Here is the input.
Amino acid sequence: MSGPVLTIELAETLSHAVVQRIRELLLRSSAHFAEKRSGEYDLSVDAESLGVTDTDGVDGHRPIMVSLMGPDVGDAS
Here is the structure.
């Protein structure tokens, strides 16, 4: 899935529970959700919820990749 990338840089280690809460929020917020590995998510979100009105004739959703990076999560672990 291609599209914008949101990288969240973490200054310190988050508990597993906090990472799980982030995952659950992203899951609830998207029409498509795939977790490539812990801390890396492919989403498809409703474009209007992001303020995007031009959806190129697609189903109104836009792909976004979200990556958590920092101690014990993502590439920086």
In short: The chain has a mean pLDDT of 81. The longest helix spans residues 16-28.
